[in-house]
Amino acid sequence: MSSEDLFPTRMEQDRKPFPRLDPVIHARNQDRWNGPLGEESLSRYERDGFLWFEGFFSQERMRPFFDELNEMAKDTELVKSDQVITDPDSGDLRSVFDMHRISKRFDALTRDPRILGMVRQLLGGDVYIHQSRINDKFGFQGSGFQWHSDFETWHSEDGMPRMRAVSASIMLTDNNEFNGPLMLIPGSHHYFVPCHGKTPEDNWKDSLKSQRVGVPSQENLRTMVNQGGIQAPKGPPGSLLLFECNTLHASNKNLSPWPRANLFFVYNSVDNGLEKPYGGTDARPGFLANRDDTAALSMYDNLEPL
Ligand code: 6CS
Ligand code: FE
């Protein structure tokens, strides 16, 4: 194992949550205000572990991304590949990983100056993409996602040392109370919630369809929800959610007729590069946990061709 494991998890017995060891906002001193986020937003992110921007991009701006996703869903070669995860019930597309390496349009969006500016401010410096994906829940059938902290998985299965990553989730469709929007537990990012149960080898082949290990106990979840409640931000395509890597979240099955497709870019600090997985399993494939392409992102300047 690499360095000391400060966030032990996936053990035999259930353990109590303990306070996180890392700051929530990593920019130090005056650098805290060196970026697009004002103090009100910074304080809210620090308190809740996420920020919601309804209609951050226009709906028109999102359409080509949703169209590209629908083209990908028809690409039988791509759908057969490991980086596309199919729904455990319907067999339809559930997640596509590494979007930004498949498509220039998605790559440019990872470097959107407004998003990158906020992410750098929160993480206190340069960042790279740890993981990118789309989660697509078809109408009537898209399955849900169990409660989890992304950091718990990335630490244990990918060797991410510290809590210094943030996800930007951009809605490609409307997210409403009927189509399985993301639910978050405000304030849960302040604690590391150890999970119980050993990680099987090649866990990702099952966990990305339906997660079993890395799900907190009901007792620990109840404690977190009793403290912070649950919020499910809702809004039109183009809405943006920034959430801290350790914020507990989940989503329900989509029982509505409408699709729910959300794009996720996970930004990690260049000073928080991956080590060997702390849980002792083999490293996961690069499309889930990028170890190669870790140069600092530069802003997309609009002149680069798409
Ligand atoms: O295993 C992972 O890396 C992923 N799994 C979930 C359920 N959320 C985050 C991440 O994409
Ligand atoms: Fe997640």
Automatic annotation (TrEMBL):
Cofactor: Fe(2+)
Lineage: Bacteria, Pseudomonadati, Pseudomonadota, Gammaproteobacteria, Oceanospirillales
Name of encoding gene: thpD
Organism: Alloalcanivorax gelatiniphagus
Biased composition (Basic and acidic residues): 11-20
Metal-binding among keywords: yes
EC category: oxidoreductase
Gene Ontology molecular-function annotations: oxidoreductase activity
Entry-linked PANTHER family: ECTOINE DIOXYGENASE, PHYTANOYL-COA DIOXYGENASE DOMAIN CONTAINING 1
Known partners and oligomeric status: Homodimer.
Name of protein: Ectoine hydroxylase
Enzyme Commission number: 1.14.11.55
Keywords annotated in UniProt: Dioxygenase, Iron, Metal-binding, Oxidoreductase
Known role: Involved in the biosynthesis of 5-hydroxyectoine, called compatible solute, which helps organisms to survive extreme osmotic stress by acting as a highly soluble organic osmolyte. Catalyzes the 2-oxoglutarate-dependent selective hydroxylation of L-ectoine to yield (4S,5S)-5-hydroxyectoine.
